[in-house]
Amino acid sequence: MKITIIGTGYVGLTSGTCFAEVGHEVTCVDNNPEKVATLLAGQVPIYEPGLEELVKQNVAAGRLKFTTSTEEGVKNGEVIFIAVPTPPQPDGSVDLSFIEKVAREIAQCLTPELGYRVIVDKSTVPVKTGDKVEQTVRRYAPAGVEFGVVSNPEFLREGCAVDDLLHPDRVVIGSNDDRALAFMQKIYEPFVAPVLVTDINSAELIKHAANSFLALKISYINAVANICEASGADVEKVAEGIGMDKRIGRSFLNAGLGYGGSCFPKDIKAFIHISESLGQPFGLLKEVEKINYDQLDRFLNKIREKLWVFREKKIALWGLAFKQNTDDVRESVAIKLAQKMLGEGASIRATDPEAIETAKKFGELKGDITYHTDLYETLDGADALVIATEWPAFAKIDLTEIKKRMRTPLVFDGRNLLDPKDAKAAELEYISIGR
Ligand code: UDX
User: pLDDT band at residue 135, thresholds of 50, 70 and 90?
Assistant: First the structure.
């Protein structure tokens, strides 16, 4: 199939590349000429395992192209995916201006001679956005143009995006137009995945409802962790015990500092806003948010309790990314934690396997902070070690080295990466979550 993707951000670039990988002819459009030049040179501007090789291979095979021209994209692609940002606004609602702009641009490039086109929304959007896209394209396209509108939400996780795209749990395709649905089914034929076909509103809603449910699982286990702390139970065992019930499942029951990233915080806020604007307020999600934000404060209080004051204290901070296997620091709890500690006068030595450069560029960490690629270097003379991101490499650390290098061997594990028994054996004062 001939596919065009508009927007080469996380979702657009990885989806376009994976469509090319399964044999489709893909044109990726981005309005940033520098980004397009970088991609044409075979370089990928984000850290995502396996992506760069796939981009190179598919560009070389002639199945993957990059351009700044929407016109070229609309000409090349029978199916045109919109994958542009849908950022949050201060009141929690979703800013749909990029979607609207792209819909208009597509419309202006359509001609009756091009034939039928499918316009697919891949970005996360509020329910009923498809109607708006359809109205906008209809209004701005020349008379006689034929098109269908589809919602095809993306469920990829950063850090394992390529695998998630090539082997998805499910593919959701929503449209009220059978012709458009037939095109979409053909696109997904090479993927071994169950396909759920729905109307367009349901497909849009599935994305917000799924992410909110996952966030709910995280807040649920964090609330349980707090009860474990108060009662002397172990949240890891509790998660294991409840997760063995197939109806619940063990995944997304890792207690810790809570969720961050470019999706969950924004999507939960958006869903709260959507439910309110439809007159069906979803109070449960407000509690999910509250538990998530309180989790960071609780952890900070545990550190304060031991250190008494942050001023003149050296903190080794492990983790800057919002989770493991990514260099993304957007809405990272690790960054928020660092900001608070710096604000109270701590001196931080930070490390992260991938996110040092993005954290520097992000520019939100001001104060006495240095960055180190060597984990052990951060520990020298430190008053406390704070683990903020669940990188598996952190769990493999030599605990005796921690004890040897730190001024006081106080370890605050915000992701439950270390085994409390090992920490005790290494004579560390070890504080984690819900254990
Ligand atoms: C998420 C959804 O999983 C994905 O389907 C959607 O398309 C985009 O949003 P992502 O943001 O990449 O993906 O990361 P995810 O792996 O879901 O983790 C989100 C956050 O939750 C991270 O901050 C992580 O640290 C936290 N988390 C996750 C927990 O605190 N505990 C868990 O058990 C799982």
Answer: very high
Using a cut of 0.70, tell me whether the model's pTM lies above it: yes
pLDDT band of residue 399 (cuts 50, 70, 90) is very high
Give strand pairing partners of 119.
80, 149
Told to judge if 263 belongs to the known catalytic residues of this protein, a careful annotator would answer yes
What domains are defined for the chain?
2-198 (3.40.50.720), 208-288 (1.10.1040.10), 295-431 (3.40.50.720)
155 ligand 1 Cβ < 6 A:
yes
Confirm or reject: Cβ of 253 under 6 Å from ligand 1. Answer: yes
Residue of 95, 103, 23 whose CA lies nearest to 70: 103
pLDDT at 41: 87
* CA dist., res. 228 & res. 9, Å (int): 40
Q: Is the pLDDT of residue 101 over 90?
A: yes
Distance, CA 157 to ligand 1 centroid (Å)?
7
CA distance 262 to 231: 34
pLDDT, tens only, 231-257 = 999 999 999 999 999 999 999 999 999
